[in-house]
Amino acid sequence: MIEQNKKISVESESVIEVKELAISYETRKGEVPAVRGVSFQVGRGETLGIVGESGCGKSTIALSIVGSLGKNGRFANGSINFLGEELIGRSFDDLRRIRGNEIAMVYQDPTQALNPALKLGRQLAEVLTTHQDISFEGAWQQSIKMLEQVRIPDPDQVMHRYPHQVSGGQKQRVVIAMALLTNPSLLIMDEPTTALDVTIEAQVLDLVDDLKNDFDTAIIFISHNLGVVARVCGNIAVMYAGVMVEKGPIEKVFASPLHPYTKGLLDCIPKLGMTKTTSQLIPIKGRVPVPAEITEESCIFYPRCDFREDVCNNSQPEFLWGDGDHGTRCFFTNVISKKSKKRKVVKKSEVERPDGSATSIDNDILLSIDHLKVYYSHKSNVSYFSKKKFVKAVDDVSLNIKEGETLGIVGESGCGKSTLARGVIGLEDVTGGGGDFLGFDLSVPLSNRNIEFIREIQMVFQNPDSTLNPSYSVGKQIARPVKRFGIVPRRSVDEEVYRLLSAVHLAEHYYGRYPRQLSGGEKQRVGIARALASRPDLVIMDEPLSALDVSVQASVINFLLELQETQKTTMIFIAHDLSVVRYLADDVAVMYMGQIVERGPADAIYAPSYHSYTEALLSAVPIPDPAITKKRIRLLGEVQSSINPPTGCRFSTRCQRREMLLDNGKLCEREGPQWQRSEKGNWILCHIPVVELSQVEPIVHGRGKGAKSKLRPARARY
Question: What is the CATH code for 1-102+183-255?
Answer without folding.
Answer: 3.40.50.300
